[in-house]
Amino acid sequence: MSEQQDYVVRLNGVSMSYGKVQALRNLSLQIPARTFVGLIGPDGVGKSSMLSLVTGAHAMPEEGELTVLGGDMRSKAHRDLVCPKIAYMPQGLGKNLYFTLTVEENLQFFAGLFGHNQAEARKRIDRLTKSTGLYRFLNRPAGKLSGGMKQKLGLCCSLIHDPDLLVLDEPTTGVDPLARRQFWDLVDNVRIQQPQMSVIVATAYMDEAQRFDWLVAMDDGQVLATGTPKELLERTGQPNLDAAFIKLLPEEKQAGHKDLIVPPLEIPSDTTGYSIEANGLTKRFGDFTAVDHVSFQIRRGEIFGFLGSNGCGKTTTMRMLTGLLTPTEGEAKLFGQKLDAENLETRLHIGYMTQLFSLYNELTVYQNLQLYARLCRIPEKEIAERIEGMINRFGLNEIRNTTPESLPLGMKQRLSLAAAAIHNPDILILDEPTSGVDPVARDSFWELIIELSRRDHVTIFITTHFMNEAERCDRISLMHAGRSLACDAPQKLVEERKAKTLEEAFIGYLEDADPVSAASDKLENAEPEPVKEVKPKTGLAKFFDKYFNLKRVATCCWRETLELMRDPIRMTLATFGAVILMLVMGYGITLDVEDLKFAVYDEDQSLTSIHYAQNITGSIYFKEMPPVHSLDEMENRLREGDVSLVVQIPMNFGKDVQRGACPQVAYWIDGADPGRAETIVGYVEGIHSLWLNEQNQRANGASAGLFDLETRNRYNPDVKSLPAMVPCVMPLLLLMIPAILAALAIVREKEMGSIINLYVTPLSRGEFMIGKQLPYIFFSMISFVILLLMSVFLFKVPIKGSTATLFLALFLYTIITTGMGLLASSVTKSQIAVIFLTMIGTMLPAEQYCGLINPVSSLQGGGRLIGELYPTSHMFTISRGIFNKALEFGDLTSPIMKLLITIPILLTICILLQKKQES
Amino acid sequence: MRYCLKNIYYLGVKELQGLLRDKLLILLIIYSFSLQLYTVKTSSTDTISDAAVAIIDNDGSQLSKRLVDGIAPPYFLVPKAINYEEIDASMDRGDYTFVIVIPNNFERDVQAGNCPEIQLNVDATRMGQAFTGAGYIQQIFNQETRDFLHDSGVNIQTLAEVNIRNRFNPNLTGSWFDVLMQLANSVTMFAIILTGAALIRERERGTLEHLMVMPVTAFQIMASKVWSMTVVVFLATGVSLLLVVKWWLDIPTMGNLWLFMGGVALHLFAMTAMGIFLACVAESMPQLGMLMILVLLPLQMLSGGSTPRESMPDFVQNVMLLAPTTHFNIIAQGVLFRGANLLDIWKEYLWIAGIGSVFYTYSLSKFRKSL
Lengths: 919, 371
Prior knowledge:
The complex is a heterodimer of chains A (919) and B (371). Chain A has 919 residues and is α/β, with parallel strands linked by helices. Chain A is 48% helix and 17% strand.
C-alpha cells in the first residue's frame, strides 16, 4: 500500500470561519487509516466544523487543503465518488433522523437511498436492530425513543451501507452510562466485522477518550496534541485525561484553574429537619409513568446529585419540586411544609436553572438580573446593590451591558446561576448546568456552587451526566426509567457494588434494574459480509443511476408523504387550505350589491313622486327602510349606517315633470365605501332611465333615447360575481398554498438539520427536489378536485368547456407552483421567512400583472414582461376560457404550451440553486 | 395583589425592551404603518382604470369619432381599432374587456331620431370593470351625443334629471377607504403576530419554563404580553393616523379620533388574546405562520373591510358577528368616514368588549393547560 493511503484524512493549513467567529485556524492534521480516532475538546473548539468538512457536508473554505480517502475534497467528482463511502452522524440527538417516522421507516429511508433492494434492506435492518436492541421498537416513532436509543438508531442509519469511514460527532452526549457503554460496544463490534473501516469520533467526555486508539486534542480551532491516550498522559504527567487536557491548554487558559476541593458538609446547628423531602413522588402522563415512587431527603446545605439519562424522569422530578407539576401520587415537602403549587410564596425560596440557557437574549446581562430580582420581590431600593454584588461575585462585570446571545457557554451558565441565586434562595435547583461547558469553566462553575453550599448553606439539587461531577456531590441518586435505583454518597455506592469507579457502579445498578434491556442489548456477532461485485453501468444508464435514480426519488417522495401526513397543521393546509380560503373568498369577495338599504325622502307626495319611488322599491338591489322626513333625519341615518341611499324627491316634482321644467331627483349616497357607492350610482342611473323610458312610452309610444346601447354581457350574462371569481380564485389559491408547502418542505429540513442527509448520501439534488415535490403535486390535485366540486355544486358555477383540458392544465400548473416554492426555498433559511416570502412573491405578481383585473396585453414595460412569463397569466386564460367561455383543448394550445415549456426551465433553475454542500 | 400588578408591569416592560431590540420586527411595524399606507394610496385605483377597449367604427362619422375619443384614460386605455371578425377570438383570449361596435349611418340615424343601436360586448368575467365600465361608457356616449347635437343646434328635453350627491366622500376617492381599511387590517395583524410571536419565542427558548418557577402566574404572563403589545400597536395606530394618514397622505377623517382609538384599544384586547390562543395551538413559529394564513384572511375578508357585509349570505353575516374585526370595521367606517358619535356605535363597543372577554378567558385556560 502506498504511504498516502495510510492516512484516511489529511488536512493542510485549513482555516474556516462563520461570520466573525473563527472555527478553524490554520489546521494541519493527518489521521491514520483503519484506526479508532478520538477528537477531544470542549464545545465550540472546531471539532464539528472539521468533521463537516471531512464528510463533505460543508463546502471547503478558501484556505487549506483536505484529502479524504485519497482524493481532494474540493473536487466534485471525488466527492461524488467518496461521499457514499463515508457515514456521518451529526451532532445532536438524532439530527439525521426524522422524528415522526418510526425506527423501521427511518432505516428503510436510508436503505432506499443507498439502493438496497427489499430483501437486502430487510436483512440489514434486522441484523442492525437486533444487535442494538432496537428490534423491539421498530414501530416506535424516532422522536419517542430515549436519547441513547436515538443515537443507536442514528448509528444504524449510518451503517446501513458498509462505509469505509465512519464519522460520529459527539454520539454519546446526553446518554446514560449503560447506553453509552452499549453504544461503544456496538461500535467495537462493527469494527471487528469491518476491520477496513476507519472511525473518527468527536467527544466532550474526557473519560470516554481512554477507549480510542489515537487521540486528537483540540482547542480554539487548533490541534493541541495528538497521540495514543497513554502517550498524552505520559507527556503531561497527569493521572487522567481531564487533567491532561487542562495541562495541554495554553498557559493563560490554565491560569486561575486549581484543583477543586470540596470541604466536608457541616450542617449549621440551628437547622431542624430537611430542606427537601420527597415521599413516594409519582407522576403519570396517561399510561406512561415518568416518575415512579421516588423518595429522598436532603439536608440543608447539602449538594445532592441526580444522575441519569435524558428522559429518565430527572426533569419531571425537578418540575414537581418547583411546583410546576402536581404529583399524581406522593408528596414533596420543602422545609417540612407540603409543597403547594398555588402558593407563590414557596417559589421565593427556590432558585432554578434550566437545562438550556433560558434568560432573555433580547435583554442585557444587567436587565436580565434586574428582571429576575424584581420578579422575586426584592425591594426596589435594594435591587441595584444586590445586582452589583452578584456581578462582582460571578465575574460578570465586563459583560454587564452586553446581551447574552454572543457570550460563550460557560459565561452564560454563570449568568444563569447568578439569576437563579439573586434572591438568596434556600434551595437551588440546577438542571444539567454544565453540559457542553469546557473543563476549566466547569470547574470554576463548581467553585461557585461549592461556595454557595458551604458558605451560604444553600441546598443544592443538581443533575448531571458527568461522573466526575457526580463524585463531588455529598450524595447522589441514580435514576433510571422513572425510578431511583440507589441513593447514597458516591463513595459508598462504589463500595457497595464493589466497583472500581462510580460509572461501573451505576452500570451495575442499571443492569440489575433492567435485565431485559441489558440482555437484549448483548451483541450478536455476525459474520463479516462478503463483498459483492457490482457491474458498472455505462452511458445514459450511468447518468440516471448517478443523478436521477428513480428508486431514490421514490424513497424521498415516500418519506416526505409520511412526514406530511403526520403533521396535522401542514396536512390541513395541504388538503383543505385552499378549500377553506375558497369558501371565504366565495362569500367574501362579492361585487354583487344586493339588499342595499335605502329610504325615500318624498317632499312632494304627489302621484308622480310616489310612482317614481315605487320604481326603486321594486328593484331587487334595494331594500326599503322607513321613509325619511327631514334633512336632519337623513343626515343622522346616513351617519349611523342605517341606510346607504336616500332618494330625495323635491317639492312640486310632479308638476315640474308635467310642465317640462326638468326637476332634479337628489340621490344621497353613503360614500364611505367608494366601491359600493360606485355600484349604487350605476344602479340608480339604470333605474332612472328605465323610469324615463316608461314615461315616454306612455306619453308618445316611443323610446326617449338618442341611441340604444345594446350591452351584451358575454360569458357571464347575469354579471354575477361567483362565475367571474371562481375561475380566478382557483389558480390563485393553487399557486400560493402549494408553493408555501413545497418551500416549507425544504426549509424545514434546513432548520431541523436533516438536510444533512442530502449532503452526505448519494442523493442528488434533482432526486431530492423532485421526490419532495411529488407529494405536494398530488395533494394539490386532490385539493383541486374538491375545489372543482365545490364550484359546480356549492357555488353553482358550471364548467362550460373541456374538463379534461382543465385537469391537464392544472396538473402542469401545480408542477410549476410547487416548483416556485422550491425556488423560494433555495434563497431562505428560516421557515417563517419562507412563508412570508412565498406568500408575497406569489400573490403580488399574480394579482397585479397576470390579467386578473386588466388583460396582460394592456400592461406596459416590466409589468408586461412579468405578466407574459408568469404561469398564473396562462392559467387565468385557461381557467376562464374553460369555465366561462366554453373553450376546448384546441382553443387553448398556446397557453398550455407555455405552461409546458416553463416546467423544465423552472425545475432546472431550482436544482441548480439548491446546494449539495453547506456553505 | 400589589405584586401581581408589579409583575404584570415588569414583564410587560421586558416585552417592550425585547421588541426594541428586534430590528426586523420594528422595521416591519414602521413600514406597515407608514410606507405601506402610502403604497396603498398610490396604487389604489378607482373601481375602473386602464380598461382595455376595442372599437369597430363602421360609421366613421364626426359623431362616431367623438364617441371613440371620449373613451380615454385614466378610466380606459386608448381604444384599439379591430375588425368585426376578430371579436370572438380576441375576447376568448381575454384581450379586451369591452368591444364596441358602432353601426353604419350612426350619425345620420341619431340626427333623424331613429335611435340606432350601438353594440357593447362586455367580458363579464372581469366583474368589477364590466359593470362599472359599461355604466361609464353609457354616460360618456350620452354626454358626447348630447354635446354633438347641442353643437349642431338641436335641443333635447328630459323629464327629470338625476342629481348624485355622495356624502362623506364627494368624489368617491377609492384610496380613502383602502388606506383606512389597510390601517385597520394592520391593527388586527400586528395584534396577533406580536403577541403570538412573543409567546412562541419564550416557549422555544425555554424562558417560559423559567418564568413559571418564579413567583409569577400564567395570568400575569398573559396580561403582560397583552398590555405591552396593545400599547405598541395602539401608539403605532395613533401616530400613523395623525402623521401618515391625515398629514402626509392628506386623507380627511370625520369623527372624534378618540372614539376610534377607544375602538382600537378594545379590538387590541380581543385580538392579542387571540394571538395567545393561536400561539398555544401552534407548536412553532412556522406553524403559527400557517395558522395565520387560515385565520387572518377570513377575518379580514368577511368582516366588511373589503366588500360590504350586506352582500354576503345571511349565515356568513351572522357568524361574522362573533368576530371582533366585524365590529371594529363598523366602528372604523362609522367614526372615520361618517363621523359617527358614541350613540351610533356603543353597541359595537359592547360587542368587542364581550367577545374580547370570552377570548381572553378561553385563551388563558388554554395557556394554563399548555404549560
